[in-house]
Design brief:
By secondary structure, this protein is an all-alpha fold. It has four helices and no strands. It has helices at residues 10-42, 49-111, 114-136, 138-150.
């Protein structure tokens, strides 16, 4: 018969316990680091006046630099936002101009209606017929009047 393979159940528990140990070590290290920082901030280590002055200047200068970068970042974000808003305003203005231009074009086309154009062409045809009638004779006049009555 075939051998039946069994899975080790203890393998999963070891892995979980290793994660717990690693996590507890990490928490202990963070606690120690925080405790050291708190003690160092309480103890200035400023045995002399010169040491105290240099520490004070270093801390003040780093604070000023941090505040300056924050302020510059704030101004930069504000200018980017305003530029974005202006860009959208310009695009909206361009769209409005395009709409106005299209409306003007439509009103021009409406003023030049096909009825007026057809009347002009008929008037032009009559003038052409009159000119050809004077040059050709009476027969062409009769034909031209018959063609106009058929229209």
């Amino acid at each position: 018969m075939a051998d039946i393979k069994l899975k080790d159940v203890s393998k999963g528990t070891v892995k979980v316990s290793n994660k717990i140990v690693a996590c507890s070590d990490h928490i202990k290290q963070a606690y120690i680091k925080t405790k050291d920082k708190a003690e160092s901030s309480m103890d200035d280590n400023s045995n002399t006046i010169d040491k105290y002055a240099t520490d004070k200047i270093e801390n003040t200068s780093s604070d000023v630099a941090h505040k300056a970068t924050q302020h510059a970042s704030k101004i930069g974000r504000k200018s980017v936002y305003e530029t974005k808003q202006n860009f959208h305003k310009v695009n909206n203005g361009i769209d409005n101009l395009k709409k106005k231009y299209a409306e003007k074009k439509l009103t021009k086309q409406a003023n030049n209606s096909p009825l007026k154009q057809s009347i002009k062409t008929i008037e032009r045809n009559e003038k052409a017929i009159k000119q050809s009638a004077t040059s050709a004779g009476n027969k062409s006049i009769k034909l031209a009047t018959n063609e106009l009555s058929n229209i």
